[in-house]
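Provenance

Sequences were taken from public entries as deposited. Structures were produced by running a predictor on each sequence independently, with no templates supplied. The record for Efflux RND transporter periplasmic adaptor subunit from Microvirga tunisiensis is shown for reference.
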Amino acid sequence: MRFPRSVFVSSVLFSWFAAASLASAQGGPAPPPPPQVTVAKPLVKDIVERTDFIGRFEAIDQVDIRARVSGYLDKVHFQDGTFVKAGDLLFTIDPRPYRNELEQAQSAVTSSQVRLEFAQSDLDRAEQLRRSGNITDQVYDQRRQAFLTAKAELDRAQAALRQAQLDVEFTQIKSPLSGRISRKLVSEGNLVNANETILTNVLSLDPIQFYFDVDERSFLAFSRQTHGGTNTSANGETNEVELTLTDERLGTRKGQLDFVDNRLDSASGTIRVRAVFENKDRFLTPGLFGRVTVGASDPYKGILLPDEAIGSDQDRRVVYVVGENNIVNLKPVRIGPRIDGYRVIRDGLTGNETVVVNGLVRARPGAPVTPQMTTLPPMRERNGS
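Predicted structure for Efflux RND transporter periplasmic adaptor subunit:
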């Protein structure tokens, strides 16, 4: 049985008005509760702001090994790339020609000593005859001249002997310092020219230096510090730095600033700074890149918040502060670097506020929230600045 269309429409409208009247009589649907958010007090503690710089390691001492006498390379006494100590024998140049020169020099000394002894006795006789008047002054002067000449020849022969002894000693080339040696650059049997041919080189490894460049703005900030900064002095006050290698997330080695250059480079606007690190395990290698973290401020009371508690409002950074009746208020802040896993709040907070640290997307300025209180730990895992 089919009802007329007008009867069906009238029934639907009647049902809708009846439902509306019933809802109006019961006061309407209940509003949703305020959203839940996690809140906490900002972390307030003594901090020192730090700045990172990229640099490279260099050896404190580096020596190119050269021969001090010419000759044919006779033997190599080390293995390439090993560690050597100061005084270790590295190369030997064929010593036979220099030993022959040494024997000749010894013979020349002996001959000069004999001539000097004869000239001495001849002069002594001349002095006796001169006192008795049996010799002329001219003959006496001649014998005295012969004595002085023989003495000078002996001095020259002794000097030549000492030089010949040095030449024989120089045929053994020893390491002037302790460190890692490179490969041999000349093989046995090759002619080596004195003071020219580079045979190898040696680098010291412990301690090791780290050079990096500091921009002008950072340098001025460091220089205004009352504790440390980039000042290096002999009064025992040192500025500690922290080293992070390219394959590390956290710095594990500590060093000290020990040198700041005396002028800024006018072309780059930077100044060269040096830190020194212990390298007992010889792991740090000259030429290796790294990152040093340097204190960029004096200690002060800092206000810290996690990055997820900081939002953006156009071109400014803001935090959501929970006030009376759990109403959310928007507060602009000025942020700084990351320290201990938190972001430094330079301006905008006093540290006594209750801040939304989790659930920012559910909070709205001027609207209430259901806060869940938590406490920020003193330190979080650092992910860099």
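DSSP finds four helices and 23 strands in the chain.
Helices lie at 5-25, 96-132, 137-170, 216-223.
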